[in-house]
Design a protein that fits this description.
Layout lengths: L2 E3 L22 E3 L20 E3 L9 H9 L5 E3 L20 E3 L21 E3 L20 E3 L17 E3 L12 E3 L11 E3 L12 E3 L20 E3 L10 H6 L6 E3 L5
């Protein structure tokens, strides 16, 4: 048996069917939309499982759930999106075999522990559409990352509290992600942005970057090191506050393969 998918959004299941625990050679289990309070004990020891998708299950990351996840020795991909998490247990970051982790659409999630730096085998990390107010410095330890999606996070406040003086600073450690190919730091056009984003000079170290999305961030300039991104193929700059075309873009244009998506202010 390779894969089992149970669409909890189409069919009304009450929990994960217990017979699934009999399939010890299962590689992928998708139970998205099936509401469970925690992982059931009959999933313990499914050591051939490589992908577990728990999107919109409201699965609690209890001691039992973490213990079962630890027992899945070959687990590489874990999807925990849309589960109403406001915090994450430290033990989650001990699943060091993971190569993909998706925490998106947990709208109450405002902070991520520095312990995320323990997940040194991650190649793909998605924490989009949450309420992050800070990116942990330790993210720079995830040197195998190829794909990082942090779009539409909580860089906004109510309109009557908005201030352009507030700066949202991307940590310099992001420049350590030398294998990164896709980076999405775009904001949201649906809410008011809190201040403006400041990119570190170290972003120029991302020499393997192919796609970069910086839309909706009220950026006023790009760091000089930006012109080092010679492998960049797609750059999204829509809805920022540039007064003129940044000089570094003129230099990048010479690589002949860069596609820039940007509608300048009139």
């Amino acid at each position: 048996m390779v894969e089992i998918t149970i669409d909890g959004l189409r069919f009304q299941f009450e929990g994960i069917p217990e017979p699934i625990g009999l399939f010890k050679s299962l590689k992928k289990l998708n139970v998205g939309g099936i509401y469970i309070s925690q992982l059931p004990v009959f999933l313990k020891g499914m050591d051939q499982l490589e992908e577990l998708i728990l999107f919109e299950t409201l699965c609690g990351l209890t001691k039992q759930s973490i213990e079962i996840l630890r027992s899945m020795k070959n687990l590489k991909k874990l999807v925990l999106g849309l589960n109403e998490y406001s915090s994450l247990p430290e033990e989650l970051f001990e699943l060091t075999n993971l190569t993909e982790l998706d925490l998106s659409f947990n709208y109450g999630l405002s902070t991520i522990s520095e312990s995320i730096g323990k997940l040194i085998n991650l190649e793909k990390l998605e924490i989009a559409n949450c309420e992050l107010i800070k990116i942990p410095e330790s993210i720079g330890k995830l040197k195998k990352l190829k794909y990082l999606d942090l779009n539409r996070n909580n860089y906004w406040i109510l309109d009557d509290e908005w201030s352009e003086d507030v700066e949202y600073i991307i940590p310099a450690s992001i420049g350590n992600l030398e294998n990164l190919e896709v980076l999405d730091l775009s904001g949201s056009g649906n809410r008011q942005f809190l201040g403006k984003m400041i990119l570190p000079d170290s972003i120029g170290k991302l020499r393997n970057l192919k796609k970069l999305n910086l839309s909706n961030n009220y950026l006023t300039y790009l760091p000089d090191s930006f012109d080092h991104l010679l492998n960049l193929e797609e750059l999204y700059l829509d809805k920022n506050n540039f007064d003129k075309v940044p000089d570094c873009l003129v230099k990048l244009e010479k690589n002949g393969k860069l596609r820039i998506i940007w509608y300048p202010k009139p």
